[in-house]
Amino acid sequence: MNYRTRVIDTELAALVAGVPAVVIVGAKAVGKTESARLVAGSMIDLTDDDQLQVLRADRGAGLKNAAAPVLIDEWQLDAPTWEVMRRSVDADPSPGRFILTGSANPQTVRVHSGAGRVVRIRMRPLSLAERGISQPTVSFAELWEGKATIAGVSPLSLADYAQEIVGSGFPAIRFGSEALRGRLLSSYVESVVEHELPALGTTLRKPASLRAWLRAFSAAVGTTASYTAIADAVPEGERASRVTISGYRDALEQLWLLDQIPAYPLGHNRLSELGKIPKHHLVDPALAASCLGITVASLLDNSANKYARQLREGPMLGHLFESLAALCVRVYAQASGLDVSHIRTKHGEHEVDLVAHAPDGRLIAFEVKLGAVASDNDVRHLVWLKKQLGSDVVDTVVLTTGEHAYRRSDGIAVVPLALLGS
Q1: Is the separation of the CB atoms in 122 and 338 below 8 Å?
Q2: 117 C-beta neighbours (distance < 10 Å), count
Q3: Which SS3 state, helix, strand or coil, does residue 347 take?
Q4: Is the confidence at residue 57, as pLDDT, over 70?
Q5: CB-based contact 138:39 (threshold 8 Å)
Q6: So where are the chain's domains?
């Protein structure tokens, strides 16, 4: 598989040129190693038992003698390596010494933070722009700078978006055999249950209960359903205790598989009475589709609504399309140094699907709509937010499945998701 340029590549290259050590975190198979190799001088692969044993024999010499930047792949497989790396960069804080990748964030491993020496960045699955299915015409960075041109024609149909949802953003799955994608995704989930979680020290007395909870969580994607409601959606014979479910969530977060969007933080902004529940998402909407047994056909004919209907309103396609949009916005927002949250007033009168925001309170607000155009009703929450925050709202955007990108007469941008890029 030929390497495809990732949005994170520019950020990674700049960090390697400016700080002693960079840690790339993210779920297994998102492409961390491939991107790191582009800027690494040498590589130590800790998934290779021979290389792992050689490093353990003399970690100091192993890291010192390798060409910089030294890529240490899956560093958590030998936790003491972190301390050796940290002491090394404390002694010599020259830029570009180390790149570490990790597919797990083990809570049992005690490591010094490396503050001031080590910078951590998150890698997610491929956004639509990175998949190369169309040429983006609207730049997220230019939206943030107030310089965006809102124009372009998208070649994607609703069926194409359904295909992108189930087709996955994991590179090896996305660009592998189309006939095998479904089996590869289900195997990914099984690997998590049977291998990755036990490797973290998570004991699964009833693996079936975790699979059932994952199905219920997948049905809640794009919603703020309570954890109690999600647990209650599991068939009675497969339910686990609240303590057990809490352990599931913690372990899946350690593996970077849950990628929930937090509620917008209260602070110096002029908003009050906001809800605090995160919006539920998995790292790749294709995983949610796989857990639910969803196909392109079932998405388009709405038969996927049969499972856990009580957790959401509307067709599953709309929620999974929002999850795909969230993935894309998060990839592009990170490149601009922004965090992503959602806004929901305490009693649900107003909701904004995605808010990319800076520490000073400025933000871009996004609504995600399955339709092709944006009606006045579709933009009412964006209008409300603009009235509340005024000039802090840099831009307002409706992401659609439509054909054309344009600005409405009220200034709100309407952008087909396939036309949004970094």
Answers
A1: no
A2: 18
A3: coil
A4: yes
A5: no
A6: 8-122, 128-421
Cβ proximity of 387 and 112 under 8 Å:
no
Q: Is 70 helix (H, G, I), strand (E, B) or coil?
A: strand
Q: DSSP character for 325? A: H
- pLDDT the model gives residue 149: 95
Sheet holding 413-416, edge to edge: 339-344, 351-357, 363-368, 393-400, 413-416, 406-407
CATH number of 8-122: 3.40.50.300
N residues, the chain: 422
Contact 396, 414 (CB under 8 A): no
Structure tokens at 252: 């899946």
Which residue carries 């014979």 as its tokens?
237
User: Chain-wide mean pLDDT for the chain?
Assistant: 90
Alpha-carbon separation of residue 32 from 102, 125, 241, 371 (angstroms): 8, 10, 35, 34
Say how far apart CA 237 and CA 258 lie, in whole Å.
24
User: Is beta strand 363-368 parallel, antiparallel or unpaired with respect to 118-122?
Assistant: unpaired
Query: From residue 340, how far is each of 156, 335, 365 by CA, in Å?
Result: 25, 12, 10
Q: How confident is the model at residue 108 (pLDDT cuts 50, 70, 90)?
A: low
Region of 22 (left: φ > 0; alpha: ψ -120 to 50; beta: rest) is beta
Q: Residue 269: its pLDDT value, please? A: 58
* Residue 233 · residue 218 · CB < 8 Å: no
d(CA 407, CA 396): 10
Sign for the CA dihedral angle at 43, 49, 54, 57 comes to positive
Q: Which of 341, 337, 293 is nearest to 316 (CA)?
A: 293
Give yes or no for a contact between 155 and 134, defined as CB atoms under 8 angstroms apart: yes
**For residue 203, what pLDDT is reported?**
73
More confident residue, 271 or 417: 417
